[in-house]
Structure formats: C-alpha cells, structure tokens
Design goal:
There is one protein chain. This protein has 5 helices and 6 strands. By secondary structure, it is of the alpha/beta class. It is globular. The protein has a single domain, classed as Leucine Aminopeptidase, subunit E, domain 1 (3-Layer(aba) Sandwich). The chain has a 6-stranded mixed β-sheet, with helices on both faces.
C-alpha cells in the first residue's frame, strides 16, 4: 500500500506532522518512547499534558510537539499485557483507531506510530503487530486522511516482525511484500 510503510528509526526525530506517543494514563511522561518524546519535546510538553487530566487506556489526546520536528504529539495509553484475556486486543486496536480518528479530525496528513504497549507494558510484539496493522489498514481503507502512515520501529528486529505480519495479511503477491 502506498500510504503505509514500516521504517526503522527514532520517532523523536520524525518529520511527520504528528507522532504517536505510547503514553501512560497520566500523560506525564514515563520510560521508553514516552520518556524519549517528553525529553526531546522539552518541559512545555509536560506543562501542556498536566492540563489534559490524563487519558483513558485506548483513547487519545493531542498536544503540540514543541521542540520536536513533528507539529503534534498524539498520546495514547495502551493496555498492559495480562495474557490477552482482559480485553487487551480490543484496547490496543482502540489506541490505533483513536489516534487515526484524531489525526483525521485535525486534518493531519502524515502520522508516525510507535509500537504501542510492546515495551514495558509487555504486549508480545507479534500479537501487537497483528492488532496494529489490522486497525491501521482497516482505517486507511475507508478514510482519505492521514495520507501517509508509518510504523516507526526502534530496531530492525521489530520492523521485521511488522513486515512479516504485513506480508502475511496484506501483500497480494511477492511483488507487493514489504
């Protein structure tokens, strides 16, 4: 699909109009991607997040990007993995849909995702990739915005899992594999 790609990189350096932060429910920073985004954006991001009153798991809220190249940050708290029988797949899918809906509402043309819940929240990457890609691809099939969506993976190993998952479900033939 020409609107979606999988890349390896540091999401804090993204040139997308908006990036997605795998936040916690307080939106006040944390470890992993969340901590890196807060550090790169600077203290004004934390100040704005304090005014938002947190965010429910599976929902999304938007802030300015401050010192980031991205104009906006879309924060979404993902589910903590408890084995998959506490609604984790539905909550994770809701994270992706909520971010995409918010981007569309704001007219955001380019959006970069990190791999939500797969760090300290322990969501198994192969399972998360399936949920994430289904939510993203289903949304893009029915909506003109965002025009470009990327999954920004921190490692080549993570990107390979996303590519294998995409190829399994979405590549029409070997010429369309990522």
């Amino acid at each position: 699909m020409d609107r979606f790609s999988i890349v390896v990189g540091d999401i804090t350096g993204s040139d997308a109009e908006a990036i997605v932060n795998a936040a916690n429910t307080t939106l006040l920073g944390g470890s992993g991607v969340d901590g890196a985004i807060h550090a790169a954006a600077g203290p004004a991001l934390l100040a704005e997040c304090r005014t938002l009153g947190g965010c429910e798991t599976g929902r999304a809220k938007l802030t300015a990007g401050y010192r980031l190249r991205a104009k906006y940050v879309i924060h979404t708290p993902g589910p903590i993995w408890h084995g998959g029988d506490r609604g984790e797949p539905a909550l994770l899918a809701s994270c992706y849909r909520s971010c995409l809906e918010l981007a569309e509402e704001r007219g955001i043309r380019t959006l970069d995702f990190c791999s939500i819940s797969t760090g300290v929240y322990g969501y198994p990457l192969p399972l998360a990739a399936t949920v994430a890609l289904r939510a993203i691809m289903d949304f893009l099939a029915d909506h003109p915005l965002p025009e470009r969506v990327r999954m920004v993976c921190h490692t080549e190993a993570a990107a390979e899992i996303y590519r294998q998952t995409w190829n399994l479900w979405y590549a029409a033939d070997k010429d369309h594999r990522l």
